[in-house]
Amino acid sequence: MPSPELIQEAERQLTICNACRYCEGYCAVFPAMELRRRFDERDIVYLANLCFECRACYYACPFTPPHDYQLNIPQVLAEVRLQTYAEYTPPRVLSRLFRGNGRLVAFAVAACVLLVLLAAVAVQGSDAVFGEPAAEGSFYQVVPYLAMTLPALALSGYWIWALLAGGLRFWRSTRGSLGDLVDGPSLSKATKDAFGLEYLKGGGEGCTYPDERPSASRRWLHQALVAGILLDFASTTVAAVYHNFLGEDAPYPYLSLPVVLGTAGGALIVGAVLGLAWLKLRADPLPAYRRMLGLDWAFLWLLLLTAATGLVLLALRDTSAMGALLTVHLGIVAALYLALPYSKFAHVVYRYAALVRYRIETARQGRAV
Ligand code: SF4
Ligand code: SF4
To answer: Is cis: bond before 91, omega within 30 of 0?
Structure first.
């Protein structure tokens, strides 16, 4: 659980909001808040993870600094969220180490790249890594298929386990039961809210980000990022089918399905990450929580490096740079998988769980925004 001082401060601010209620049309946090008279730790963790940080309540509020009430709802909820990620995602030692720690992420990237490069040179020889590629199946001459897929599967299993275990811990500690998880209508509404980024709309006009003018840009960039990640996942799945069931090895022709899907996905990710970074650079720092920004930047960098090295590898796959580029790309992917549960990506799981809880609560109370 977050520290007692932080819980006390969040409770102070939420109690004022619960009396005011001016912002109840902006997002799910305020209607959920209004179902309570008092807030304990579990309520505050739940409400914090329900916040999409659209900042509408910050710009609407007459009680933000320099007012004596010193309200800054997006900031205090972001601080609670960061502590949630650190406390809930296992193993705790790693989640606390990674918390907003951009240097550790950079070290993990460098270490993984070096490890993959040294392993490829040691096992396959420097000619395979730095020499001219063979015409066919050359990726696997640098890193054999099993050496590529088995660690990727193990790391995928690791981050999925860490996030699911963290999500389950969050669910239980916010009064959720396993029985609640079979509430089909609430799950379906929460899924629609999550994919539609319903609460990045700031109540309708758009998110007040990067400044107090409503804008849909952050929401569209998030949608583009999700689409890019899904396309890349589809590309990897199709490539696995080609290899395992059709007997066709990479590299595939430029107009083949895996390459078209992967290129479109990579380009969408690069464009979305650059757009989000541009917004972040221009964003008003006052409603932000500084340590959460470290987590945001580390995740954006990891995504950008992964997608950009994938695209460069595709463009230069017939040159002598292919071997080195492949090892760099695989090292970055390994670092991404390792850091994923402790990165900003964790918000996908905790926020989704909070949305499900919100839909269950409001269905029981017969109300919703
Ligand atoms: S953020 Fe300010 S305006 Fe909005 S509900 Fe709270 S006290 Fe009222
Ligand atoms: S920042 Fe946006 S999502 Fe968060 S509590 Fe305020 S209005 Fe709701």
So the answer is: yes
Residues with a CB atom less than 6 Å from ligand 1? 16-17, 20-23, 57, 60-61, 63, 71, 73
Q: Identify the pLDDT of residue 136.
A: 57
Q: How does pLDDT run across 74-86, given as a tens digit for each residue?
A: 999 999 999 998 8
pLDDT digits (tens, 9 = 90+) for 161-178: 999 999 999 999 988 888
Helix 4-20 to helix 73-88 angle, to the nearest 10 degrees? 140
Q: Which helix (H) or strand (E) holds 49?
A: helix 41-50
First to last CA, the chain: 28
Atom 6 of ligand 1, residue of closest alpha carbon? 17
Position in ligand 2 atom list of the atom nearest CA 199:
3
Both tokens of 186, joined, read 């609430």
- Residue ranges per structural domain of the chain: 4-89, 92-352
In this structure, the residue with its CA closest to atom 5 of ligand 2 is 51
Which string of b and e fits 42-78 if b means at least 16 CB within 10 Å?
bbbbbbbbbbbbbbbbbbbbebbeeeeeebbbbbbbb
CA distance 269 to 266: 5
